[in-house]
Amino acid sequence: MGELLVDIEGAVVKPGVYRLPAGSRIDDAIAASGGFSRQADTAMVAKTFNRAAKLIDGSKLYILEKGSLSVELGQSASSGFSDAHSTAGGVNINTAPSSQLEALSGIGPVTAGKIIAGRLYFRLEELMEKKIVGQALFAKLKDQLTL
Fold it and tell me: Which ranges in the chain are annotated with CATH 1.10.150.320?
């Protein structure tokens, strides 16, 4: 059946790279790392990760600590970024709220909802593979998006 390597970092008991059986889920990676640490922002995990989603080889998971997003928001404002979901690389499709996704040309409320429902993404091309956007729209947006 094979195996895959997953890097899980941040607010987990034992951050690191783990070998898991092919077909493993995000929840399996969390369990392999000893689970969430006391500092884990489990509310943010619930909003941004589908813990039942299958992992792919080379996946990286980062579990935020409580309060870290508000720190990032404050730092972003002082460094010229509008918020923590937008970077020099573009809008983060794994964390951006619907309003920020809708600000992109060609993305309306329905498509933004599909992007959010399809999280967690490991590659931008998954937007096309999951039939959330077509090739033309993806080609137009790909330079404005990040993971």
Answer: 84-146
In which residue ranges of the chain is pLDDT below 70?
1, 68-89
pTM value? Answer: 0.52
Cβ atoms < 10 Å from Cβ of 130: 13
Output the furthest CA–CA distance in the chain (Å, rounded): 49
> Is the CATH code 1.10.150.320 the one for domain 84-146?
yes
So what's the pLDDT on residue 80? 32
User: Domain 3-63: which CATH class?
Assistant: alpha beta
Contacts of 121 (CB under 8 A, 6+ apart): 93, 94, 127, 147
